[in-house]
Amino acid sequence: MQNLLNKKKINVYLAAPRGFCAGVERAIAMVEESLKKYGKPVYVRHEIVHNKYVVEDLKSKGAIFIEELDEIKDKKRPVIFSAHGVPKAIPQQAQNLNLIYHDATCPLVSKIHREVEYFERNNLTIILIGHRNHPEVIGTMGQISSKIYLVEKESDVNKLKLNKSSKVAYVTQTTLSVDDTHSIIKSIKERFPDVVEPKNDDICYATTNRQKAVKKIAPISDLFIVIGAKNSSNSLRLIEVAKQYGAKKIILLEQLENFNLNKLKYVSNIGITASASAPEILVQNFLKLIKKNYQTKIFEEEYEKENVFFKIPQYLKLPN
Question: Do 93 and 158 reside in the same domain of the chain?
Answer without folding.
Answer: no
